[in-house]
Design goal:
The chain is of the alpha/beta class and 349 residues long. Strand 7, helix 15 and strand 8 form a beta-alpha-beta unit. Helix 12 packs parallel to helix 13 and helix 12 packs across helix 14. The protein is globular and about 70 Å long. The protein starts with a helix and ends with a strand.
C-alpha cells in the first residue's frame, strides 16, 4: 500500500506537484504580459507564427515557441496548424483581460504582482517567523511608514494606481451595487488613488458627487501619469486620512484600505470617519471577506498572507469588521458577499 501511495499516479502526489509548480504558471503569465505577447497578437490581422511573435516583441524564436506552447496549455492562447507550422492567436480570456487595448485589461496588476508581490512572497517563511512585512529585506526600503515603502518609487506608484484602475474596471460595479447608494449624494472615497472607483460610482449614481481623498504625492502622480476622470462631479483633495481633516460626506468609501492596517490603526481611522460623517450617513467598506470560521475562501486566505508580506494588516471576517465598526460608533451593520473577489459592508452613523 505504501509503495502504491508514493507512485506518480497517486492523486495526492499529483496535487502536491501542481502546488509546487504553481509559481511557474504565474511566471508564464507574467512573462507573456511583460513581453507584450498578447498585445502583438491583438494587433495582428490573424494568427501569427512563432517567428512573427518573437520578432514583434524582440525575443528569441526558439524560446518564444516554448512560452507560446505553455500559454496554449494554460488556455491563454489558441493554436492552429497550417502546413505543419503552428499559428497562435489570443483566446477570449487573453482578449478580455491580457491585451492592453481591452478596457478590462489586467496587465498592470499582473506586472505589479510580478515585480513587487512575487518578490515579497519569496520571503513568506521569514514573514511568518517575524510577523511583519518584508519590504526592507526584499527591496532595502524601510517600512516604518507603510506607504512610503509601498510607493517606493514614482514608477511603482504609477504601476500600482494603474493596477487599481484595472481592478475596479472588473469588480467595481458589483461592490457599488451591493447596496443602494443613491441615498448618499455626497461621497468621499478615502485612499481613492486616481479616481477609478469614483468614476464607477458616478456612472452608477449620476446624482452623486465624489471627493477622492489621498496623499499629496498620490494625487500629483494621478494627475501627471494616470488617466484621471475629468468630471465636474468628481474632485480630488490632498491629505493623510490618519492626520488631516476629512472632507464632509454622506458616505465614506474605504476600498481595500482597512486590510492594510492592524486593528488599532483601523479603529483610529474608523473613529475619525465617524466624527466626520453626517448624521444618518454611512460607511462602505470594500474588502475580500473571510468566512466566519476563517477556513476559506482560499483566495482570501492567500490575500491575508499577502497582507503579511506586504502590509501591516490582514483580511478579516464579517464579525471582525462588525466589531471594529461598532466600537467606532457605527450601527446597522450589513454585509453582502458578491461572489467575486471583493465584498461589501455598509454601516450607518
Amino acid at each position: 500500500m505504501a509503495e502504491n501511495m508514493s507512485s506518480p499516479e497517486d492523486p495526492c502526489y499529483r496535487l502536491l506537484t501542481d502546488y509546487a509548480n504553481g509559481f511557474m504558471v504565474s511566471q508564464v503569465v507574467f512573462a507573456a504580459c511583460e513581453l507584450g505577447v498578447f498585445d502583438v497578437l491583438a494587433e495582428a490581422p490573424g494568427p501569427l507564427a512563432v517567428a512573427a511573435v518573437a520578432a514583434g516583441v524582440g525575443a528569441s524564436s526558439h524560446a518564444m515557441e516554448r512560452l507560446l506552447d505553455a500559454c496554449v496549455s494554460l488556455k491563454l492562447l489558441q493554436v492552429e496548424m497550417r502546413g505543419g507550422e503552428a499559428f497562435y492567436g489570443n483566446t477570449e480570456m487573453s482578449r478580455i483581460y491580457l491585451s492592453r487595448v481591452s478596457p478590462t485589461s489586467q496587465c498592470n496588476m499582473l506586472l505589479y504582482m510580478a515585480k513587487t508581490t512575487y518578490h515579497c512572497w519569496g520571503r513568506l517563511a521569514q514573514a511568518v517567523r517575524e510577523g511583519k512585512n518584508q519590504y526592507l529585506q526584499t527591496f532595502g526600503v524601510p517600512a516604518d511608514e507603510l506607504f512610503s515603502a509601498i510607493y517606493r518609487s514614482e514608477g511603482e506608484r504609477v504601476q500600482f494606481m494603474q493596477a487599481l484602475r484595472e481592478l475596479w474596471s472588473v469588480d467595481g460595479r458589483s461592490v457599488l451595487t451591493a447596496f443602494d447608494l443613491s441615498l448618499f449624494p455626497l461621497v468621499c472615497d478615502l485612499g481613492g488613488g486616481a479616481g477609478a472607483l469614483a468614476e464607477q460610482c458616478l456612472c452608477l449614481y449620476p446624482g452623486c458627487h465624489v471627493t477622492v481623498f489621498d496623499l499629496p504625492e498620490v494625487v500629483r502622480t494621478a494627475k501627471e501619469h494616470v488617466s484621471v476622470p475629468e468630471e465636474e462631479h468628481i474632485s480630488f483633495q490632498e491629505g493623510d486620512f490618519f492626520k488631516d481633516r476629512l472632507p464632509e460626506a454622506d458616505l465614506y468609501i474605504l476600498a481595500r484600505i482597512l486590510h492594510d492596517w492592524a486593528d488599532g490603526r483601523c479603529s483610529q481611522l474608523l473613529e475619525r470617519v465617524y466624527h466626520s460623517c453626517k448624521p444618518g450617513g454611512g460607511i462602505l467598506v470594500i474588502e475580500s471577506l473571510l468566512d466566519e470560521d476563517r477556513r476559506g475562501p482560499l483566495l482570501t486566505q492567500l490575500y491575508s498572507l499577502n497582507m503579511l508580506v506586504q502590509t501591516e494588516g490582514q483580511e478579516r471576517t464579517p464579525s471582525h469588521y462588525r466589531a471594529l465598526l461598532s466600537s467606532a460608533g457605527f450601527r446597522d451593520f450589513q454585509f453582502k458577499k458578491t461572489g467575486l473577489i471583493y465584498d461589501a459592508i455598509l454601516a450607518r452613523k
